[in-house]
Design goal:
This protein has 84 residues and is an alpha+beta fold. The chain is built from three helices and two strands. The chain has a two-stranded antiparallel ribbon with strand order 1-2. Helix 1 crosses helix 2 and helix 2 crosses helix 3. The radius of gyration is 13 Å and the shape is globular.
């Protein structure tokens, strides 16, 4: 397991055929990869799903923030805690 404090790492993902860069801390990249694998999806596909969900919000956050919030909410759901 990695030490908990690292600066963000920038990676390129493709959403709807458009490349974009996302900066996340390594622990969030790790969690995103685990979540994608658990759903049988490539990371790009999961990020695209999160992007669609965030755009449905009344005040959509930026994509990086949406990914972090999605991971937090899913982690709470999976642990049996209320995400709200």
């Amino acid at each position: 397991m990695r030490a908990p404090y690292h600066p963000p790492v920038k990676r390129s993902v493709t959403i709807a055929g458009h490349p974009t860069s996302i900066s996340l801390e390594p622990l969030f990249w790790d969690a995103l990869e685990v979540a994608a694998a658990a759903r049988g999806l490539p990371v790009n596909a999961l990020v695209a799903r999160i992007d669609v969900e965030r755009m449905e919000a009344d005040e959509p956050p930026n994509l990086t923030s949406a990914i972090r919030q999605w991971l937090w909410a899913k982690g709470r759901e999976e642990s049996g805690q209320d995400a709200g």
